[in-house]
């Protein structure tokens, strides 16, 4: 979808998708932002901007009340009826592709920069992100450690767990980090799986979000699940909690990947040390 091009650079921009908001800040164009969606939590200062709602449940009224002259969204934005309504209101809407790959991040940065009229800065930023990520991936490939098998759990309830499969950001992120997801070839996106499927997957480590662990009993509740207790991860208590923004596939991708790799290594080393003692 493409809106009506403005004669002058947009000065009232709304960003819908955490990765786009990160890009706007990385391009030093945050002074043009007048709103952001709920997934836009980084940098933390972005949370001071008016929130137009969750990117898959947008409302035209809240967005139009901010009088934007440009709305940047990814293809994940919904519902389509709201996007159509915004376009009918003659607001310039740019839909940015959101492929969960390094090439996808590069393209996303450049397209956002183009929409903001700062292509040169976008090309430079994209080049830096690609170079840093490529260097990190080369280091990972050079390491002799055997791959870690891990699952990503979005939530758990009554012995049923929603886990990440092929096509999800979490699966793509783990793959880049060199982590094997046993559900990658079994399910698509996020789906609930049974305890039997969980035991069969038998992950070495469970990865989940910080907000799952924040209540204090979240990890304990996860590890107390009968099926989890019968996995290698459950027996050794290996759970890695990450920030949701790590899955944004934005300009902070190399730092996010490095953080995950470091936590997985620390968790693995802890288990090896315990085994040697």
UniProtKB/TrEMBL annotation:
Q: Which SUPFAM superfamilies match?
A: Helical backbone' metal receptor (SSF53807)
Q: Which Gene3D superfamilies match?
A: Nitrogenase molybdenum iron protein domain
Q: Which residues form the signal peptide?
A: none
One Pfam family from the UniProt entry?
Answer: Peripla_BP_2
**Source domain of life:** Bacteria
Q: Where is the Fe/B12 periplasmic-binding domain?
A: 12-272
Family annotation (PANTHER family): HEMIN-BINDING PERIPLASMIC PROTEIN HMUT, VITAMIN B12-BINDING PROTEIN
Its name, as the record gives it, is Periplasmic hemin-binding protein
């Amino acid at each position: 979808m493409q809106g009506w091009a403005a004669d002058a650079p947009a000065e009232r921009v709304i960003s819908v998708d955490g990765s786009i908001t990160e890009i706007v800040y990385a391009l030093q164009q945050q002074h043009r932002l007048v709103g952001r969606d709920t997934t836009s939590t980084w940098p933390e200062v972005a949370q001071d901007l008016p929130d137009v709602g969750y990117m898959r449940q947008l409302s035209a009224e809240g967005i139009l009340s901010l009088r934007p002259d440009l709305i940047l969204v990814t293809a994940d934005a919904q519902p389509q009826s709201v996007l159509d309504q915004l376009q009918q209101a003659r607001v310039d809407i740019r839909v940015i592709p959101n492929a969960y790959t390094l090439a996808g991040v590069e393209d996303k940065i450049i397209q956002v920069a183009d929409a903001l009229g700062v292509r040169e800065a976008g090309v430079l930023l994209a080049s830096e992100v690609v170079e840093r990520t490529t260097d990190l991936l080369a280091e990972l490939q050079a390491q002799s450690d055997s791959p870690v098998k891990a699952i990503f759990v979005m939530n758990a309830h009554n012995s049923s767990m929603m886990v990440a499969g092929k096509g999800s950001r979490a699966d793509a992120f783990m793959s880049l980090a060199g982590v094997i997801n046993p559900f990658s070839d079994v399910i698509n996106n996020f789906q609930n799986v049974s305890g039997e499927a969980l035991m069969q997957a038998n992950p070495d480590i469970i990865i989940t979000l910080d907000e799952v662990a924040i209540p204090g009993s979240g990890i304990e509740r996860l590890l107390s699940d009968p099926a989890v207790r019968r996995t290698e991860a459950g027996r050794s208590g290996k759970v890695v909690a990450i920030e949701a923004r790590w899955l944004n596939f934005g300009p902070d991708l190399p730092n996010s990947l490095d953080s995950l790799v470091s936590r997985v290594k620390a968790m693995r080393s802890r288990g090896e040390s315990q085994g040697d003692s």
